[in-house]
Amino acid sequence: MGNSSIAISNPDYVVLNSDLQTFTINKSGFYDISGFLNYNPKINSSSSKTGLRLVLQVNKLGIWTDRIAINSTFEEMATNTIQTITIPFDIIKLDKDDQFRFMITKPSGSNTDHGSNAGITSGMGDLRKSFRITFIN
User: Fold this and answer.
1) How many helices (H) and strands (E) does the chain have?
2) Disulfide engineering: 37 pairs with which of 60, 80, 91, 129, CB 3.0-4.6 Å?
3) In angstroms, rounded to a whole number, what is the distance separating the alpha carbons of residues 124 and 106?
4) What contacts 94, CB < 8 A, 6 or more positions away?
């Protein structure tokens, strides 16, 4: 995730860290998190299903834990197409200096192939991803 694709409207609440992959909370409180990403596993197979797991991880005191996980399945014959993975609205409590990140993994088990060039992608110039975190109180 490059810095050019990240817009932070109020850095009083959250900032992008220098690694360009994690964020730090500046103010304790409840946050609304939602979003989407477009993903293509890039498999050309008529017999291979695949899956994707998108996880929001929170780092409290140096320990990363899964907070929100979305599992998505790509059916046979549709494994070389872009599909949108939605991150449903969720409210979580975050404390000052907590960090968070989004991780994309394959679910464990067989039949979860991904091509070497699989990734977040757009269809005909559409947005590739959009994540929103809003301070509530």
Assistant:
1) 0, 9
2) 129
3) 26
4) 25, 28, 29, 30, 31, 58, 100
Report the Cα 72 to chain-centroid distance in Å.
12
State the amino acid at position 127 in one-letter form.
L
pLDDT in tens, 31-77: 998 888 888 777 766 666 777 888 899 999 999 999 988 888 777 66
Count of C-beta atoms within a 10 Å radius of residue 23: 21
Pairing of strands 63-74, 50-60: antiparallel
Q: Are 68 and 57 in contact (CB under 8 A)?
A: no
Q: Which residues pair with 64 in a beta bridge?
A: 59
Query: Which two three-digit tokens encode residue 2?
Result: 């490059």
Q: What is the pLDDT of residue 62?
A: 92
From CA 33, how far away is CA 55, in angstroms rounded? 12
Instruction: For residues 108 and 19, give the distance between their C-alpha atoms in angstroms, rounded to a whole number.
Output: 27
Q: How far apart are CA 79 and CA 50, in angstroms?
A: 7
- Give every CB contact of residue 66 below 8 A, 6+ residues apart in sequence: 55, 56, 57
